[in-house]
Amino acid sequence: MSELSKVYAPDEVEGRIYKSWEEGGYFTASPDPSKKPFCIAIPPPNVTGVLHLGHALDNTLQDILIRTKRMQGYAALWIPGTDHAGIATQNVVEKELRSQGRTRHDLGRAKFVELVWEWKQKYGGQIIEQLKRLGSSADWSRERFTMDPGLSKAVRKVFVDLFNEDLIYRGNRIINWCPGCETAISDVEVNHIDHKGELVRFKYPLADRSGHVTVATTRLETMLGDTAIAVHPEDDRYRDLIGRMARHPIHGREIPIVADEAVESEFGTGAVKITPAHDQTDFEIAERHNLDKINIFDVKAFVNENGGPFAGLNRYEAREAVREELAKQSLLTGSDEHEYQIGVCDRCKTVIEPWLSEQWFVRMRPLAEPAIEAVKQGRTRFYPERWTNYYLNWMEQVRDWCISRQLWWGHRIPVWYCDDCEKVWASMDDPSVCSECDSSSIRQDPDVLDTWFSSQLWPFSVLGWPEQTEDLAYFYPTVATVPGYEIIHLWVSRMMIAGLHFMGDVPFKWAIIHGIVRDEKGQKMSKSLGNGIDPIGLIDRYGTDALRFTLAEHATGQDIFLNEEWIAGSRNFANKLWNASRFVLMNAEFAADELPENLEISDRWILSLLANVTKDVTDRLERFEIAAAARTLYEFIWNEYCDWYIESSKSRLYGDDDKAKADVATVLVWVLESTLRLLHPIMPFITEEIWMTLPGTKSSSALIVAQWPESDAAAIDLEAEASFDRIKEVVGAIRRFRSDHRVALATNVEVFLSSANAEALANLRREESMLAGLARHTTFMFSSEPPTEEAVARLSVGDIDIAIPLAGLLDLDAERERLNKGLGQARAEIERLSTKLSNEGFRAKAPADVVAQQEQKLKEQSELEAMVLDQLDQLDTPSK
User: Fold this and answer.
1) Dihedral angle of Cα 400, 405, 409, 414, to the nearest 10 degrees
2) 545-561 pLDDT per residue, tens
């Protein structure tokens, strides 16, 4: 048995421990008929990425589940990997090229893709190494990449099959277009930010010159693509205009005035311009009314030839030029400041353009129906359950999915066009001639697939599909996926669709959803706000286990408003465990291999609590209530085991009774050993390091593969729990008295215990030695009646009366004066805060967080008042 160092040093322990796990092969898992499978496929981080707190959270949660199931004897497989991250990766490499004065077009497609692969091989593994620092026990021998040959084959098969089933089509629809990246992007790559703009009003002349209709818009330049004006069918102001024509003031073309229920009568003037090529709602109105769709922008958001005299201007220049032209025609009627949200590209921060574009789409509705039913039937369940409706609401209104991206890095769309016979077909292999006419004048579609197209296949493609592998048969469906709620629509729903369509079964049985890690003010962390926190920096400062425990303790499914002080608190918890373990191990030489009979009350109490905690933690983890499990362990280890049991053990350890010494040492080691097992999934490094120092055969194998503890129902002892809780309450009352009245710890205090319950008093008398050890510098007297001295502080704990003579201990009058002064100050503050909070003007004008702060202060002062009154009540005896 080795010894623990005086101070726990994570930086000296974690690398060594992790290396031992890897070399021991503990992370690997294979199909084993004698075991139940438990498989999680990691939400693949971007290959360009570095670990952020969101990654730290969801990988900590996954690792907790995997480590628990591994210890419970499952074939626990956690499959790691990374996503090729089309836009992000291409942007990184293009940025390097620009620093050299080159572009991808200078290299050509083949050379550029080759360069990206080189970059990936050189830099793409950074986040994997950081996940290892987090303690992730993934099976790294199975690491996958979304553009591996096997996964690429899966992507191609899915595209070809869906194409041949007429579930993939090419069409003109509104998409998110980034003029900076020059590609369509997904909703998750659009950040919506508040924008202070204006609402501009201008007149559309009626074609018959009988008047005009005034419209309002935040994007004046898009009027160049207007093909209609729309009003609500029940808006009496415009009822007579429905069906008539207006004249476009720039192009001169006539456009219809239509009625549509999508129009909000309260917005602007109640009449809206319809630009179908640059607004999703307008596009849908155009579909219903068979309107023209005119695209006025090129790929860089410059006005194209459809903009007439404004062709060649960028969209903002065009906005001002159109304003000037409308003013010149006396059609501009005014504008108002208007705050609204705009979308910007997550990568390059360019304002997104809703853009009518010919793209590839997946028909989602027929694919979504089985995925909706699977959740309704409970084949896949969400935790927390509230996310079920979030998923179902989106799936029941799902739109077709734009899957094409105008990039060079990614899975190229496997569609070919014949220039001779105009055949369009998808193929698993790269053809050399047209499948219809044998012409060699064929070309492949230049676009690549949305990154999410490949990641939707992740739960089965990483297991070898489309090959029918042993892994696939054994581990699919996986047990769980653990993503943040922001990608339920983008990833969870699509994995459900793909799994059911191609595997005939759900991809996972549980979707365990976590929140976003925000700063302590509730803001989403970002580089631009300057509030981002580097988890590797936190690990360097506090240790991995401290960060993991903090994230686990707050993983309730809600957003986490992270306060770094929490992590410091978790580091203190690790130190508490370390120091307690050092104490136990210094006395472990006295311990036996088996628990003794005829245990003391404190031994029976801690073993009873251990049985309850083991069952509670096991049940909580089974239900994915990780935060509750973490809090249960914290309370048990810090308060019950360290603060009470270890302290109560010292009187026997330092005594002369060898049997008593052996008994308590045995229980100390026994409880520590079980506690390390329970805590290991959450805090793996410190528990493994302590485990290796345990005596006897307990540490013969690594903790990571030790057997999960079982709750011993026979150890549950309600009588012992009640008896020891009474001891805790008595000692706690004495400790509070010392603290409340500033009695020095070194000052001996006489304490009289009395009770009408003779049995309870007798039990306390039997534990006098332990009571004295816990209360320190306290002399106990036991009596059926309390003392009759006048100057006595009187306390009560249940059916136990506590009397503390004050003569020579306190200056009673001075103590009353001190407490009354504090009471007056608390009441003055309560009055001031109450007056402030009852002022409706203050509540109306003050920010919500300021009001909440004042309310919290009032609560604290009220609690202080109650506490001081209680302290005065303790001294409610006649003065000398």
Assistant:
1) 60
2) 999 999 999 999 899 99
